[in-house]
Write a structure and sequence with these properties.
single chain; mainly alpha
Length: 358
Amino acid sequence: MAMLSHALFQFSQDFLFLKPLTRTATPAFVILFGIMLEIAYLRKIRTGTDSARIETRLLSRMITCYVLFAAITLAAFLTDRLNARPTLKALLFLDDGHFGTILKIYAALFFIVVLLFLWIRRHGAVFILQLAIVGWTLKFLLDVSFSESPYVVSFIIGNAEGFGPAILPSMTFVAFGMAFGEWLSGRRGPLLWSLLLVLAVVVSTIALSQPGTLADIRDTWVAARWSNRPGYFAIGICSTSLFLMVFWLTWRRERPDPVSRFTAVTGRQTLFVYGAGNIVLNLLPSYSGQDPVVASAFVTIFMALLLGLAWIRSVRPDWLNRLGMGIPSMVFRVYDPAVERCAVTIRKLLQMGPGTVR
């Protein structure tokens, strides 16, 4: 969904009716982060995996997310979509880049999780929800006191309209996802995520019941992200819950349909799809014409090629390596150990942090 949104932005501005749908991508990504945090990391600690090893893996993912964000930003610089100053500021998290926002959010979330790892291990989604409440409190206080804020403050707290979804309010998404993941793993019952979903439905109903045309509602929903309005987070939770329900109902079957199988396989390549896709988009020229058929063709071809490569990378990774004359495997033989060493070093530097395991 995120790549479809970016492809539409690159090749056409005429598909505005799709924006409310494509804007659900970021909430889904962050909620899935919460589910992944419980299922792929915290659950393994409870089954005996060393905590330091899990922290190192989390930091490795943080580094990879930042490296991909940097590559996307530099690709935009190479094609003059960003000049030198905005590029440097984006790399320092002092400004937006051109695409790649979710990777910036992921990198920040991974860092916060490791920094507060001890408390998150002990209390799970409840502690994350407390962080979200702190974030919302700070946002409302700053909104009352200041009409503008530095970018970094908006990035973290979400006041004014500098960045969205901001990190601390996004803990709402993470808490919901983690509570859902804890229910799946058996750590917690369904009460917490169910209460959050009910609250989200109530807030969404209020947000969508405002007077106006469908176009007005669409524009309000699109703008709500950058101002970090509660309705954006509520609708994001509801839309992602709907996606999860559809996926669950589909995979209950003994033999899922081909589309579902394809989605599941390519879903394992989210970093590749998002990272490589946005790098290529930033290197490609934009389409400035007005023909919606041509624009649709560009979007369709791009998405088909990208998802096709993701499928091949999942089922036959050796094909892409052969196509690249062995260069991909050579790069990863150097990259993976280097990232792990960096992650270990960062973990040791954070040993004195307030929530790290000593």
